Amino acid sequence: APNAASKLVFNLPKGDILRESSGRINNFYIRGQLDMDHSFKSHPGRINALIGTEWQKTQQTSSTDTRFGYGSSSGLSFPVDQNALLNFYNTQFEETINFEFTNFYNKALTDDRYVSYYFSGAYEYDQRYSLSASARINKSSRFDASAGLNKELLGSLGAKWNLHHERFLENAKWINTLALRITTGLTGNVP
Questions:
Q1: Of the segments 6-15, 106-115, 117-126, which one has the largest average pLDDT value?
Q2: Model confidence, pTM
Q3: Under DSSP, is residue 191 helix (H, G, I), strand (E, B) or coil?
C-alpha cells in the first residue's frame, strides 16, 4: 500500500504463504446391556426385558496456522504486522478490506459427553395379550443443565392384542397376523 510519501510498502514479506490446518478426533464409546427372556412353566406367560447403559465421549480439536514469507527450502517464515494484515486499503477498488484474525490463525476444541440409562420390558400372556414399558434417561453435555434438560426421563407404555391367536379367527386362513396395539409416551434421540 502506498504511504504518505507515495513509496511502495509491502505489508507482507516476500515469499510464499503457508497455511496449515490440522484436526484430531478422539472418540470413546461403551455399552453394557443385560437381556432376559423367560417363559413360565406354571402358566402361559412370558417376560422379555433388557436394561443397559451407554457412555460416550467425543473430543475434537482443530487448529489453523499461517506463515508469511515462507521459504520451502529453508523452512523459515517472517513476522508480519497483524494490524496491517487485518486492515488494508485496496487501491484497485478503493475500499478497506477487513480480514478476521481467524482467517489466518485459529484453535478450536469441542468436548461432547453423554451417559444414557435405559430399560425395556414386556409381559405376554398366552401369545395373545401383552403389556410393554420402556424408560430412558439421557445426560448430555449438549443439553442445557441450568434448564434441567440434561436429565430428561423419556418413557412409554403400551398394550397389544394379537387377534390372530384368538379362537374366533383360528379358521381364517386369509389372515396371517392381525393385532391391535396402543402405545403412549415420549421418546427422543441423543443429540
A1: 117-126
A2: 0.63
A3: coil
